[in-house]
Amino acid sequence: KKPLDMHAIRGMLSASLLFPMCCVSLQVANQTLHTDRPDLPECFQLSVLSWLPCIYLWAVFPIYLFYLKKNNRGYIMMSIMNRFKTAFGLLLWIVCWTDLFYTFHELRQGHSQPPIYFVTPLVLGMTMLLATFLIQFERLRGVQSSGVLFIFWFLSVLCAIVPFRSKILQSEVTDKLRFTTFYFYFSMLVCELILCCFNERPPLFSNVNPCPETTAGFLSTMTFWWFTSMAIKGYKIPLEAKDLWTLNQRDSSKVAVPKLLKEWEKEQAKAKRYLFFSFLNDDPEEVEVLLSNKKAAPRQPSFLRALIRAFGPYFLIGSAFKVLQDVVTFVNPQLLRMLILFTKQKGVPDWWGYSLAFLMFFTAFLQTLILHHHFQYCFVTGMNVRTAVIGAIYRKALVITNAAKRSSTVGEVVNLMSVDAQRFMDLTTFLNMLWSAPLQIILALYFLWQNLGPSVMAGVAVMIMLIPFNAVIAMKTRAYQVEQMQYKDSRIKLMNEILNGIKVLKLYAWENSFKEKVLAIRQKELNVLRKTAYLGALSTMAWTSAPFLVALTTFAVYVTVDENNILDAEKAFVSLSLFNILRFPLNMLPQVISSIVQASVSLKRIQNFLSHDELDPNSVDRKNIATEFSLTVVNGKFSWAKEDPPVLHNINVMVPQGSLLAVVGHVGCGKSSLISALLGEMEKLEGEVSIRGSVAYVPQQAWIQNATLRDNILFGKPYNEQKYRCVLEACALTPDLEVLPGGDMTEIGEKGINLSGGQRQRVSLARALYSDTDVYLLDDPLSAVDAHVAKHIFDNLIGPEGALKGKTRILVTHGISFLPQVDNIMVMVDGRVSEMGSYQELLNQNGAFAEFLRNYALEDIIEEDEATDELIEDEELFPDDALSNHIDMVDNEPGINEAKRNFIRQISIISADGENPRARSVRRHGCSQRKHSEQPEKKKPQETEKLIQAETAETGRVKAKVYLEYAMAVGPLLSVFICFLYGCQSAASIGANIWLSEWTNDASKNQTQENVPMRVGVYAALGIAQGILVMMSSFTLAMGNIGAAKKLHYNLLTNKLHTPQSFFDTTPIGRIINRFSKDIYVIDEALPATVLMLLGTAFMSLSTMIVIVSSTPIFLVVIVPLALIYIFVQRFYVATSRQLKRLESVSRSPIYSHFSETVTGCSVIRAYGRHSAFVLMSDMRVDDNQKSYYPGIVSNRWLGVRIEFIGNCIVLFAALFAVTGKENLNPGLVGLSVSYALQVTMSLNWMVRMTSDLENNIVAVERVKEYSETKTEAPWEVEDKKPPPEWPMEGNVAFQDYSVRYREGLDLVLKKLTLNVKGGEKIGIVGRTGAGKSSMTLCLFRLLEAAAGDITIDEVKISEIGLHDLRSKLTIIPQEPVLFSGTLRMNLDPFESYTDEEVWKALQHSHLHKFVSNQPAKLELECSEGGENLSVGQRQLVCLARALLRKTRILILDEATAAIDLETDDLIQSTIRTQFEDCTVFTIAHRLNTIMDYTRVLVLDKGQIAEFDTPTNLLSQRGIFYGMAKDAGLTQ
């Protein structure tokens, strides 16, 4: 049995073929193989070895030449290195031909040499010339480092080493010249190889911070060495966006998107052609049917085909790598077989073993490189697909029709971009498994069959049985996931409500009831998680035990089927390593198939979206030059969608150049639709529309981008200081800029969140004015602003004397006062133009317009008068310091003194509570209430800078403390026990394999038969024990994790409900919600999975080391340096990849927010013709995101190559030491240690990935901990200070020298208040905004804790008792009515402490009885989030009903601002008068008439008591109160 003789036979064959050329007698194979100093025959050296590199280079040359012709990167200057390369190439050519001429010379001398001496130098010389030519040609084509030549020089050196050694071994030198030329030749080759490792300088042009990949050498590209610079940088300092490389041209949107769109357009054209031909062939009736039923269109353009055409070729390179890798995978088990055979044979030369060990190392290394390049290609393809899909969707979203927009909401489209594009990306990485898995399975089975014969089928049967088992588990798990998502969503929704209404919960002392609700949902969620964990434990068991079960059945069957079947080391361990190869594809197949199914759904969705109809760019003729009219519509008929009924009929409009046309009409008569039609946003059913010149458009709802104020106005036009100032002035924006924190460079939040409605509208107008176009379409721009501002804007901007005079303007308006000043008026009724003409003409016609005027004019005129009267009356009332910080209007009429201007600023509070249509109805209530209506919230903008602290993002390493904390949350004992279980499991697995190696050694002792049952039995027992232990350990781990998750969430929730109100005022709710959603999700799901994998791989790696060390103890020497390298690489990787992940997720959200912004404003973008600019902006954002994603992919490849190299070293040393210790080792142990080593690479790789993931995920624990330990408020109940249950009896309230501030370091809000209120008194509290009215109520409830002094209620100091004891004894009807989602009953009485009768009685008194009893659900009426399904008035009444139910001795009524309707207010007042007669009532009043009959009125001013007496006395004192009453028109 000498399988190793294959080499020799091959050698003999080739030698005999070349026999005529060499004329050298055949040496016996034994001389080559069975000596300790092997050597190859000279003939073989001269022929095969010399020709191999040449054959390679000539074979590759044509393909490579073609590639170089296609790809030109610009040429590289001649460098010293290049000159040397060329010189060496020419020298090599000379050397080779020297040999040739020498042979000719010898021939003339009469020494005839065999033909090989002519052929080889000739071939070599030609090849060297070719190589030299390539060196220069590559330089001209900008190739910096050539893989083709590197492989050529490498092969040449490799093949030259053999003759090099032979020549040294020769005792005396016969042929002096050839001896010299050969050494010369060899040294040149080595020089070329070394030079080839270095890079040429880059071609002449290149970009900023380019990715070193493009300039990297061949070796560097193969091993991803070029990434090292970033890994080092990321280790030294946390990476930032500026450290990232620019994207490769190939991956940028500029290249990827057009590539896909081009293919997609081809597809669409094809589909259209197909449809067209089918029409030609069919009879007319069928065509009718086809047209009427759009779904019947037979062929949709296929998005998949477009994708494949665009990105297929690149992806195929990756697939080619995969084929190679699949084949190379199976080399190592064969080498293992030879190695085991080698250890069995005695008296075989050692160099066999060493060459086998190195071969194993080499194939493993090759496999690593090939695999990672395959992944690289796949991931890059995935990335390009994502870029292209996002780009295509974005471009499409800008041009789809309104009908199409209806069918897919913004949210859905954003989902297409985020979720569906992501799915494609994930799929590309696995797509190759679809064919590669079956290939691997077939190959593995083939080799197994060779090894063990038909018994393999038993093992395969077990594997196939496990597939449905895994599939069922996967199905179940998915179902549980869906269920758990639902619980999670409802929990987050509830948390959101709790945090939004936290103030109300505190005021009512309801926290406990809501805490129970959250915990109930959380419990359900954890139950589902627990079920998932059971399933997870089962599937982990299946996954770990599968190879073992398969091996067990196969071996058992093999041994029992036939007496003569002997299980020896070679068979057993080769089979084991093949089974391990099988394990991966079998498990991957189901996953790939399911992700293909998901991706196909996504594909369909994207395809449907991209097939939507687009707006017809030619529906509006922009070329019109002929007429003097700058805008004409002839017989226009328009609808919103082709199938909808038309909205506008028979429209005929002609607008002369430079005139101002006003469009008026009732609500919903089609004014805005007309504007849309002019913009080409509607479907034109018939008629002609033409516009001369460019267009500016101001929509009814201002559209503001998330950018600076200045960018919003410039909108892509260049900045011109003077023009810009004029625009701001005309739009009355100058005073606003003084207030905004950063002037015109203020960042405006999403949807213009930090501007008031009026400011937004004015910015929109400023954008139109700055764009300086020919035609202006203004859709009701004056509705959102105040009357004064509207006048200012009309006069300075739109009107006959405004900045736009001479331009064509179309103004949709509701304001009557401007109509006399316009050129023409067009009156619309029900989508038709009813009349058109100048103001006078229309008045004289006495038609629809006159009617319209009569309806509106009255209120408008009254309003105007009233405003002016008030201005004159109230001037003296306002001290100069009363500046509010909403400067919304400025009067430009001369002669207004300072006081009046201040007053105007004061009055601008209107803009705060009413830059909205409602403000009109409020105007009648006079001015007083407006002055006080500004809620305390409005004081915030000044503080915001310091108010909301930036969220701290942890950088750098996670503290060990956090890991400890998590272990403590799991439970210290449990943690130790889990590790113990994992240890046991590894021990069982090692035991089983050692037992197997013992079993195989029976073969050499010839005592197989009698032991078989015992061997099989113990093997089975150990394996099954391992399976059970795996299950137990993963299960215990899951239980521990769930326990920890429960504990962490409970602590977080409890702490958040105990947190003082000030925390919620300074922390954005989103940040707190994030802790409850994202971080808790990580703790629930991501962390356990990571910990499971980490423990599994760590113990796997550990057991490998143990096995190798126990079989060859010398291995310990190698472990230390390898472990050091490992830790080193791991540290670099973790630091860099963590930061890259952070950067990637930070740069991802701008893509989506920019997108949803674009979709909402697409009509504005189109009107201004900024389509392509926005596409560019989106592309930039996507590129920014990919810029951090790409290094993230490469970092994984970089890590993989390095870690697997360490794994390959382990294989090498395990094999080497097995060879050196051959004498003392039995084949079983060799098989054991090497087959373990072959598995270890995967574990090592995953271990690093998991450590990195663990670091990323454990941060969640840190963040949750941080919020579970914030400062809490006073205890809810103080046992020894509990007030008596019937307290307060009287309802006396006393303030004693009481002062309070909102937060540490802020000024006092109330200063030394002292007052006494007797039980049953009714106290009104009035005062200007910021006087401290609301603070007083908050103090009673201790939402604000005293800074000095105290409050006593019925002789009990409220600062000493528990918060719940206090709060449950007071009742408040708050300003904004807050309802929670749930039943009405729950909203009234969350603790279920009242009977149904009492609840109904409360409803009766609060006038809700009728409404509720009419509802089918009665008290179980579901309130939606925030009580959206009740009107504001009804919500206010529900709050009243709550108060009536509690019926405590002290009632605080924070009267709602002007927003609420008067009717409800009167209901509430009358109820309070009747139902709370004997209670102490404090009312914070905005409308003085409600408190005119109260016992006493408290007037606060700047936190101090200004006046406190009965209303009549205060009026006669003629102080502040009198002034307020006079404003309200209550006194003369």
UniProtKB/TrEMBL annotation:
It is found in: Cell membrane. Residues 920-930 have a biased composition (Basic residues). Residues 631-855, 1293-1527 form the ABC transporter domain. The chain crosses the membrane at residues 12-29, 49-67, 87-104, 116-135, 147-165, 177-198, 311-331, 351-371, 430-449, 455-475, 532-561, 966-996, 1016-1038, 1114-1134, 1205-1222. GO terms for molecular function: ABC-type xenobiotic transporter activity; ATP binding; ATP hydrolysis activity. Residues 915-944 are annotated as: Disordered. GO terms for cellular component: plasma membrane. One of its GO terms (biological process) is lipid transport. Residues 931-944 have a biased composition (Basic and acidic residues). The keyword Aminoacyl-tRNA synthetase does not apply. Signal peptide: none annotated. Keywords: ATP-binding, Cell membrane, Lipid transport, Membrane, Nucleotide-binding, Repeat, Translocase, Transmembrane, Transmembrane helix, Transport. It is a multi-pass membrane protein. PROSITE patterns: ABC_TM1F (PS50929), ABC_TRANSPORTER_1 (PS00211), ABC_TRANSPORTER_2 (PS50893). Residues 316-598, 976-1256 form the ABC transmembrane type-1 domain. It catalyses: leukotriene C4(in) + ATP + H2O = leukotriene C4(out) + ADP + phosphate + H(+); 17beta-estradiol 17-O-(beta-D-glucuronate)(in) + ATP + H2O = 17beta-estradiol 17-O-(beta-D-glucuronate)(out) + ADP + phosphate + H(+); ATP + H2O + xenobioticSide 1 = ADP + phosphate + xenobioticSide 2. It comes from the Eukaryota. Belongs to the ABC transporter superfamily. ABCC family. Conjugate transporter (TC 3.A.1.208) subfamily. NCBIfam families: MRP_assoc_pro (TIGR00957). This is ATP-binding cassette, sub-family C (CFTR/MRP), member 3.
